[in-house]
């Protein structure tokens, strides 16, 4: 080994050489040549112990920083790709006393190097500034910037308002009506009854099984709120770049690609890139924060030529997917339209590239063959207006209707989940009909089928087919089935199906007739193969108006009646569990009794009305200053008042009609 002083002399000597090739006027090819020569000299010096491995690696680091453009170049003449591997090999090795070459750099030590960390920080900052400078849409949640993990409170709720922690909207959800009290330090405190005229006798007297966990004067987290499950982006961002001590193939490629200090190898870098490609955007993987000069150039060009594509550029093509290419993403996955769109983003906030032969934009994703004959506009409409991206619905969210739920699980959900078992006679029906009074949960059931079978959910009202897309309803039906076929398994929910499949009348409009015919053709599966997993769920409040041919095709006709007492109780308990409520068991029973004849939607409305009671009892001045914790709990008195404002929406005569039709055509009880 050399003495420190002589090593210092050597280093400065070598640095002189290094500075000799930093000319600003030298063409790239010459620089590359000089660089190569210099690398060889260093290699040679190191191999002959003239230069210590530490000095050599410092020099390599300097070269790499100075010549990143050359190092990253794909050009065989001017790039250093063919040399970089050996440079790296050398940088990682040292000669042991035994004369054997051993690894001098471990994966973890590389990541601890100040220069590597500085580069990674710089990369982070660069990315941050790029995203900051771009329009807000550039921040594709979960893709472009890995979010900070939401803080999950002990109660299971999330203190952050990150989309991942948004409460699942249950049956009673409606825009503007929060499902749960905000969680936070205050929420754990007992409420302060500021309105002494409105005290709740049962505040400190929990009752029966209802007191816990549903009601009671204790702030609760929303039990149904999904746990803050970190998405892919968060998951990847939290992964250590290289697990200390590990030295597998992943580690090596991460090492090569981690920062310019040791990342001399473009092939190695691209290997690392390929490794991360499969699992998500590159920046979220082991190479987070680092951009090669080439990538940086590409980003700059994107900004210049495709302002709208900045977001995608900075997330390294996060939206590269063709419609039919992948199986269902479930009903919550973000859809990527299969056809290129005009510039300017889409309704879903996504960003599409406009084909531009001159620009460096990526080629448009391949269009699914089955969609080629369709108008892109139609497909767009289906994606934005018909495809449902709502929160998941579970069977427990639907109170009552046990028979219908059991039947649906058996004939629809299981066959969709296990098409291999449910074949032949056990094969699922193509269409089912849910009929019954309004607001009994037919739509909820449709959503639940899709959620539980992992299917994509398309929801359309038949009347909008005939009115909204005047003259195009027929094409719309065809397009809807075509898209559904690409998104299998799929559930197509058609509300008010009676208006689509009503019995022929003399004054029937030609276009309505055509839509109906097209629908029946599609339902018959003339264009579908027997393996296709598309279920049509029709819902109607007027089953008697459906024509015979259509009725025959909707083989399972399930009556969805008004909720019975148990179901009404369940709805109240469920909705009140998310609120401050001090209803006693016997009071709850009174509410259940008095709501006989109410539909599920009526029950929800009743609870909403009752929930406004405590607010109404406040003075306007109090309302301006009160904290959420100080709002008095919902009491039976509020329900009493609510009963005078909410009436059942279904008349007994209507009910008779449904029951008669059920006896005649229904499948079940
Ligand atoms: N069985 C039920 N369990 C829980 N909530 C219900 C139930 N039925 C209805 N609701 C509540 O009523 C709302 C409306 O229900 P939904 O839209 O599913 O009824 P529908 O039968 O499809 O009505 P319509 O026939 O008018 O379209 C739901 O969002 C939910 O809040």
Automatic annotation (TrEMBL):
Location(s) in or outside the cell: Cytoplasm, Perinuclear region; Nucleus
Superkingdom field: Eukaryota
InterPro entries (UniProt xref): AAA+_ATPase, AAA_lid_3, ATPase_AAA_core, ATPase_AAA_CS, FIGNL1_ATPase, MT-severing_AAA_ATPase, P-loop_NTPase, Spast_Vps4_C
Database matches in Pfam families: AAA, AAA_lid_3, Vps4_C
Cofactor needs: Mg(2+)
Positions of region (Disordered): 150-188, 333-368
Annotated Gene3D superfamilies: 1.10.8.60, P-loop containing nucleotide triphosphate hydrolases
Keywords, comma-separated and alphabetical: ATP-binding, Cytoplasm, Hydrolase, Magnesium, Metal-binding, Nucleotide-binding, Nucleus
Catalytic reactions on record: ATP + H2O = ADP + phosphate + H(+)
Residue span(s) of domain AAA+ ATPase: 428-564
Family named by the database record: Belongs to the AAA ATPase family.
Protein name: Fidgetin-like protein 1
Lineage: Eukaryota, Metazoa, Chordata, Craniata, Vertebrata
């Amino acid at each position: 080994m050399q003495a420190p002083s002589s090593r210092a002399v050597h280093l400065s000597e070598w640095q002189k050489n290094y500075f000799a090739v930093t000319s600003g006027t030298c063409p790239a090819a010459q620089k590359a040549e000089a660089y190569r020569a210099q690398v060889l000299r260093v290699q040679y010096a190191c191999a002959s112990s003239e230069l210590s491995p530490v000095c050599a690696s410092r020099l390599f680091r300097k070269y790499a920083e100075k010549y990143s453009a050359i190092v990253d170049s794909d050009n065989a003449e001017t790039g250093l790709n063919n040399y970089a591997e050996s440079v790296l090999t050398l940088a990682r090795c040292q000669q042991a006393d035994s004369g054997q070459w051993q690894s001098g750099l471990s994966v973890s030590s590389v990541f601890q190097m100040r220069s590597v960390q500085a580069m990674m920080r710089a990369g982070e900052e660069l990315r941050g500034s790029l995203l900051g400078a771009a329009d807000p849409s550039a921040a594709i949640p979960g893709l472009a910037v890995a979010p900070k993990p939401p803080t999950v409170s002990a109660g299971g709720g999330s203190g952050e308002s990150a989309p991942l922690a948004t409460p699942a909207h249950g049956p009673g959800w409606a825009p503007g009506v929060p499902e749960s009290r905000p969680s936070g330090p205050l929420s754990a405190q007992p409420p302060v009854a500021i309105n002494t005229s409105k005290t709740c006798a049962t505040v400190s007297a929990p009752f029966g099984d209802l007191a816990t966990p549903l009601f009671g004067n204790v702030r609760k987290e929303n039990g149904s709120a999904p746990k803050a499950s970190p998405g892919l982006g968060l998951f990847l961002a939290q992964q250590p770049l290289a697990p200390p001590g590990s030295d597998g193939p992943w580690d090596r490629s991460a090492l090569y690609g981690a920062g310019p200090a040791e990342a001399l190898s473009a092939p190695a870098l691209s290997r690392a890139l390929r490794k991360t490609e499969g699992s998500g955007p590159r920046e979220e993987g082991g190479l987070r924060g680092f951009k090669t000069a080439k990538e940086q150039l590409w980003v700059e060009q994107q900004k210049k030529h495709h302002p709208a594509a900045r977001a995608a550029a900075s997330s390294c093509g996060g939206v590269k997917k063709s419609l039919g290419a992948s199986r269902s993403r479930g009903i919550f996955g973000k859809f990527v339209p299969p056809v290129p769109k005009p510039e300017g983003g889409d309704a879903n906030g996504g960003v599409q590239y406009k084909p531009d032969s001159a620009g460096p934009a990526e080629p448009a994703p391949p269009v699914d063959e089955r969609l080629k004959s369709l108008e892109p506009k139609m497909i767009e409409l289906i994606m934005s207006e018909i495809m449902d991206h709502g929160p998941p619905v579970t069977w427990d969210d639907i109170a009552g209707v046990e028979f219908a739920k059991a039947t649906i699980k058996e004939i629809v959900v299981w066959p969709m989940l296990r098409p291999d078992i449910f074949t032949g006679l056990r094969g699922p029906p193509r269409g089912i009909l849910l009929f019954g009074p309004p607001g009994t949960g037919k739509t909820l059931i449709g959503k639940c089928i899709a959620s539980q079978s992992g299917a994509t959910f398309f929801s359309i009202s038949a009347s909008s087919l005939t009115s909204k897309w005047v003259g195009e309803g027929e094409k719309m039906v065809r397009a809807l089935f075509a898209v559904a076929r690409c998104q299998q398994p799929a559930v197509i929910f058609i509300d008010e199906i009676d208006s689509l499949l009503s019995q022929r009348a003399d004054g029937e409009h030609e276009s309505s007739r055509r839509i109906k015919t097209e629908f029946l053709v599609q339902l018959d599966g003339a264009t579908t193969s027997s393996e296709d997993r598309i279920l049509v769920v029709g819902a109607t409040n007027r089953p008697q108006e459906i024509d015979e041919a259509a009725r025959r095709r909707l083989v399972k006709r399930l009556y969805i009646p008004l909720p019975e007492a148990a179901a009404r109780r369940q709805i109240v308990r469920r909705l009140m569990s998310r609120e401050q409520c001090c209803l006693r068991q016997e009071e709850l029973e009174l509410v259940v009794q008095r709501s006989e004849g109410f539909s599920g939607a009526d029950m929800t409305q009743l609870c909403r009305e009752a929930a406004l009671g405590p607010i109404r009892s406040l003075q306007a001045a109090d309302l301006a200053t009160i904290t959420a914790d100080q709002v008095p709990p919902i009491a039976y008195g509020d329900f009493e008042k609510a009963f005078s404002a909410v009436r059942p929406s279904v008349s007994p005569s209507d009910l008779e009609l449904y029951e008669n039709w059920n006896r005649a055509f229904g499948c079940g009880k």
